[in-house]
Amino acid sequence: MNKNKNTAELILDTAQAIVQDVGFNGFSYSHIAEKIGIRTASIHYHFPNKEDLGEALIARYRKNFIAASVQFDNETSNNLERLRKFTLMYAEPVQDYCTCLGVMLSTDLGALSGKAGEGLAEFLTANLDWLQRVLEDGQREGQLYFEGDASVQAHLFLASLQGAQLLAKSFRDRSRFDRIANGVLSALTVK
């Protein structure tokens, strides 16, 4: 069982890296099998079809985001610092000129199963809910400054980071992500 779990995790790790680079439609089980040196039958054993794999990818991604957001909350009570940590999490895939799984799956939404699409919406909602709470807390505590509703700010923040990932990937220039991320954070510190 432990070996199966390790194989399943290796398949998910490999599939995630591929999706973050070329999208959900840009690979087959044979691509994964070749990268990790197993037969496609082994992949089908863990994930009978690509829809199952997509659902497992997004479920794991959401679970990892929730764990990361709890960690951010536990590491600091400063809401600007929490947003910086969130931004650094979104910067990670940019180092390899990729985007986060959420961005790539959003662009391939039509190819996902209904369950995977729902999982993607749940992942994005988890991001937005966390951002909204941090923004509200930061505004109330005098750490963050913005006009209007925190829900709108959360959407703008997330959309800015996702768009920054796409620009960095398109231009193969991480500094484009950094400029946008820093600009979004700076805008929240101006009275």
Automatic annotation (TrEMBL):
One of its GO terms (molecular function) is DNA binding. Pfam families: TetR_C_13, TetR_N. Residues 28-47 bind DNA. The keyword Ligase does not apply. It comes from Paenibacillus sacheonensis. Gene3D superfamilies: Tetracycline Repressor, domain 2. Keywords: DNA-binding, Transcription, Transcription regulation. Residues 5-65 form the HTH tetR-type domain. The keyword Ion transport does not apply. This is TetR family transcriptional regulator.
